[in-house]
Amino acid sequence: MTSYLDHAATTPPRPEARAALARGLDAANASATHLAGQAARGLVEEAREDVATALGCSPHEVVFTSGGTEADNLAVKGVVWAARDRSRTVPHLVTTAVEHPAVLDPARWLADRGDVRLSVVPPRCDGRVEVERVLEAVRDDTVLVSVMAANNELGAVNDVAVLAAALRSRGVAFHTDAVQAVATLDVDVTGWGVDALALSAHKFGGPQGVGVAVLRRGLGVVPLSHGGGQDRGVRSGTFAVGLDAACAAALTAAVAERAAVRHRLRSWTDRLAAAVTALEGVERSGPTEPEHRLASHLHLLVAGVDPAALALTLDLVGVAASSGAACGAGAATASPVLEACGLRGTPLRLSLGWSTTEAEVDRAEEVLTAVLPALRAGAAPAPAASAVSPVDATGGS
Amino acid sequence: MARVLVAMSGGVDSAVAAALLVDQGHEVTGVHLKLADLPLDEQVPGHGCCTLDDAQDARRAAQVLGIPYYVWDMSEVFEREVQAPFAATYAAGSTPNPCVTCNERVKYAALLERARALGFDALATGHHACLRRDGAPVVEPGAGAQLHRAVDGAKDQSYVLYVATPDQLAHTLLPIGELTKAAVREVAAERGLRVANKPDSYDVCFIPDGDTAGYLSERLSAAPGPIVDADGAVLGTHDGVWRFTVGQRRGLGLDHHERRFVTDVDARSATVRVGPREELACRWMELAGPTWTMGRRPAGTVRVQVRAHGRSVPGRVVPAQDPERVRVELEEPVYGLALGQAGVLYSCDDRVCLGGGRVVAAERPAGLPVAASPSA
Predict the structure, then answer these.
(1) Position with higher pLDDT, A329 vs B332
(2) Which sequence spans correspond to the domains of chain A?
């Protein structure tokens, strides 16, 4: 059997999402004024309301995007450019070294072209970012702080609510990338007090190609794409009715069973962690306190094992996991997140999701406890490779 | 049936190699080697083995064939074992063959070792060369395989595979050597592989624009010296011996009516010597670090080839003074033999590749010392 433990890269679509997508494919253009268009627009607005309910914000604050990367880009570039246009000076942006490239790359790109002055806050060695370090980096000209709710590799959870409150009192806008968090962590836009938030549907049981940017009222955002003026002019382009509806259906379902999923996954990741850390040369990385790490993530560092050998061996025996980010060509590359945390060793991320079964966990435990010692001893167990079609996961997110 | 790892460059040959292995019933896994880190703006699509397009083409071929596919970053070992020695060999006044070095130090070393450690029975490549056991094409790994020239003589690559040892050949499969290039492309087209009409690559893979001197000038500092003729008369100057290789005619920058060739390169004195073609004639050579595909040094009459796509000439293996070396005397001269190149020996009927070594000494016109042996 195959044990798919890469839900942090993509989690399978939920039945609710499949049904909503199928319905939405028949939709007319949601901006058309005829009855068919009105019906289509009804699906989009219903989806918007469902997302708003799930996240604790107003439907007017929900913008559907093509995914987490676009949502992050919209928040970072959009807010920085709006502030620059307002003040006609070069504003200051604070982010962290453990952010996803969808935040760090636009931030560095803006800095390189002189649109922003950038401070990048280093993490603790467990991947968390200290609120004090972030606040120390904030200056009078800071217009935006972007700190992820939880890290995609280590599963380290940050004190987003504490940070948001402190920034609010200083009048600085706060964006959080909640792409990895939302499947198991109670994301609450109002409760947290964030000004912008990014989600990606395929991380919580929706289809690939759609995401959400929450942009709170009063937050100035310059659009990235111009055209028909859809979505308050922040994001032009024909509404993707089916994708938006599927995204909302998945999020509603994910939120409804989130507590149960969290409880289930935490017991499984802890069980797997106990089994593999009993092996020599295998350590669990990331925060030690359960409330500081995502229930879905188990990040390991294995000493004395070749990363390419580990990836191939696990894959061919039917355990799909992430052995690191991939470069453009597809080769595993050193993780900037682990580097920033000062962590060394061959990384292995096992991430569980809503559809994970106990049998998959059992299988993973059996394989890992056999394969890791064998690989460390320099010999690979000749695996009876099942006819698995390799999942084309980039593993980066 | 064997577990086979096939190295997929993104070209048509290795894609078809993978297809044939699948047809033969092997359990096939594809791997693409990331060998060099070329900046995007230096990547020439379809040239060399280091571009993103090639990685995509290899991935797509694996998908079409339904085999697992991985990318392994071997750029560190490639830099250390191939690129750095490549420049160093030129700097020492010799002319390296990086494909031979890559096969010896990367494919038959790092890659084959990793494959075997991971439980693979064989490593397959898309080289145009044949493995035969008892005269029949080899389709299962195992002892007793002989390395033959490819069926398609114009495409034969047995020359760059001479470094393989019997143990390595026992864990090697060369599926496409029995096919002509045209047949390889036909198979690719039949299988719906989009690389079916992809142009062949001829250049050194890490110098996709073919400008070796430009590549070297970024790695080596200028070391000016004279260009002299057979009598020692200075005809001009140069800014580094690495710009020259024995037999070279173009780019000498000499204003001269006669056709002049580089006849010798001496790195120690930074001297480049030129002369007429007759001075290029070479009737003996000595090979260092010899390896033998069947585990034994050939004796007596052989055929000798000194260029990847050159013609072989008859010669004899004779004892060298240095027991670590092999001396080969040629029955007819070869012209333009650069030190550092591979001297590869074939059976008298010119069909079986027996092995060979690096040319570290060769007949040179009198007057200049023979250059120092290159390390690689």
Answers:
(1) B332
(2) 3-11+258-376, 15-256
Instruction: Return all residues near A342 (Cβ < 8 A) that are at least 6 apart.
Output: A125
pLDDT for A137-168, tens place per residue?
999 999 999 999 999 999 999 999 999 999 99
State the pLDDT at residue B375.
41
Q: Measure the CA–CA gap between A128 and A148, rounded to whole angstroms.
A: 10
Token representation of residue B232: 């020692």
Residue A232: what pLDDT? Answer: 85
Which member of B32, B66, B118 has the closest CB to residue A309? B118
pLDDT for residue A391 is more than 50:
no
Q: Between B71, B114, B117, which is nearest A331 by CB? A: B71
Which residues lie closer than 8 Å to B64 by C-beta, 6 or more apart?
Answer: B191, B192, B193
- With CA atoms as reference, the chain B residue closest to A333 would be B73
How far apart, in Å, are the Cα atoms of A64 and each of A12, A28, A212, A357, B364? 20, 17, 5, 31, 75
Both tokens of B112, joined, read: 């084959």
CB contact under 8 A, A333 and B55: no
Helix (H) or strand (E) holding A49: helix A35-55
Q: How far apart are the first and last CA of chain A?
A: 25
For B364, which DSSP code? Answer: -
Distance from CA of A61 to the nearest CA of B (A): 39
Distance between CA A333 and CA A310 in Å, rounded? 14
Residue A396 has pLDDT above 50, yes or no: no
User: Which CATH number fits the domain A15-256, given the four candidates 1.10.10.200, 3.40.50.1010, 3.40.640.10, 1.10.8.60?
Assistant: 3.40.640.10
* Residue B21 C-alpha from the chain's centroid: 24
Spans of chain B below 70 pLDDT: 38-50, 256-257, 366-376
Q: Could you read off the pLDDT of A47-84 as tens digits, one per residue?
A: 999 999 999 999 999 999 999 999 999 999 999 999 99
Asked if CATH classification 3.30.1300.10 holds for the domain at A3-11+258-376, the reply, yes or no, is no
Mind listing the pLDDT tens digit for each residue in A258-301? 999 999 999 999 999 999 999 999 999 999 999 999 999 999 99
Which residue does chain B place closest to A326, by CA atoms? B71
Instruction: Please state the φ and ψ torsions of residue A376, each to the nearest 5 degrees.
Output: -65, -30
State the Cα–Cα distance between residues B28 and B2, nearest whole angstrom: 8
Question: Would the ipTM clear 0.85, i.e. be above it?
Answer: no
Residue among B26, B29, B70, B112 with most chain A CBs within 10 A, to mutate: B70
Inspect the interface and report whether the beta carbons of B68 and A332 lie closer than 8 Å. Answer: no
Nearest by Cα to B26 from B4, B46, B59, B53: B4
Cβ atoms of residues A3 and A320 within 8 Å? yes
**Cβ of residue B313 closer than 8 Å to a chain A Cβ:** no
In this prediction, residues A200-219 reach a mean pLDDT of: 97
| Residues A358, A265: Cα–Cα separation, whole Å | 10
The residue with tokens 């070329």 is B38
CA gap A325, A309 in Å, rounded: 15
Residue B43: predicted pLDDT: 52
Write down the pLDDT at residue B52: 80
Q: Catalytic: B102?
A: yes
**Quick check: B304 and B338 in contact, CB under 8 A?**
no
Q: Sketch out chain B's domains with CATH numbers.
A: 3-190 (3.40.50.620), 221-376 (2.40.30.10)
* A57 is annotated as an active-site residue: no
**pLDDT for A334:** 80
Residue A91 near residue A142 (C-beta atoms within 8 A): yes
Q: Report the chain A residue with the minimal C-alpha distance to residue B9.
A: A329
Q: How far apart are CA B260 and CA B248, in angstroms?
A: 9
* B194 inside 8 A of chain A by CB: no
> Which of B251 and A237 is assigned the larger pLDDT?
A237
pLDDT-based confidence at residue A393 (cuts at 50, 70, 90): very low
A162 and chain B in contact, CB less than 8 A: no
